[in-house]
Here is the input.
Amino acid sequence: MSIENRLRASRERAGLTQQALAEAADLSRQALSALEAGRAAPSVGVALRLARALDCRVEDLFRLDDDGALLEAEGTATGRVALAWIGERWVAHPLGADPHTPADGLAEAGKGRRLRVRPLASTDELRRRVLVAGCAPPLGVLARRAADRGAEPVWLTATSERALDLLARGRVHVAGAHLFDEDTGEFNVPLVRRRLGAGALVVTLARWEQGLLVRRGNPLGLRTVADALRPGVRFAAREPGAGARRLLERLAGGPVAPAGPVVHGHMEVGQAIALGAADAGIAIRAAAIAAELDFIQLAEERFDLAFAPGAAADPRLARLLDTLAGRAFRRDLESFGGYDAGETGRVVAGAA
Here is the structure.
């Protein structure tokens, strides 16, 4: 194994010149230059002095590069993947050509549902990953803020039902959902308990409004779901399993097959209408604000995060929960418009 050298990047991040760092670590500038270029390997004493000068760990500067080692992971899709350590095994999720999420590894086919993955980060770093599945755009903001607290969440877009299914099968750490249970008149908790048991933890991310998105001025005069489903109206429908799709079918009185594109995600509904590919669709108010569309409220919903029983004992998930309850995240969330953070971080089932 070779040594992965992050000395130059750490020095530049600290805003130090080579000369300044060399003096602080009691080295010559030439010796430091050789270390940064990989022409020399540090002794234990030199590595410790450099780490002290840069206020970091030795492992942040130098560590063994195990790029040649392959991991065996549970999954089926090859190519770019997100990796996480869940239930004493590696789990891989496909990223495809998603440019917003850096890959943790490159997967190739193994046996059955097993993949051989060439990691693009150290196993220590990969073990800090927290996989969060759901459709709420604020999950991206939560992931970035949680990273500041030492957690490393990765947001995987998924419908509410798909997210809960992944959590129940131990393929993600956290599932986001906004599913209304008609038998109890309650959001999320009854469905989570059916999938995960009574000990599951459910914590509120936000409340939001769901409604019809239409072009500015509402040129077709759409006011209700019945209006949006009439002949000649192109309706951007969410895929089966999405909370918005369930709301559509509940208000329509049963399954429907709208005439229009099927899209994936709240923001994609707004984009389809703004680009002229559809006339209407159901999504959250924040999607209407982002796409500069008119919004006709149909329902108020609660979006929660679900955790498997005992999850709060995991330090990674504890840091995520701390982020969720923090004032900075709540203020950031409400600044987008369309989100009510008054209950953000509230435990609605289980014990944190």
About this structure: Residues 315-325 form the longest helix (11 residues). Residues 73 and 90 are 5 Å apart (CA to CA). The chain has three domains: 2-63, 66-123, 128-352. The first strand starts at residue 2 and ends at 5.
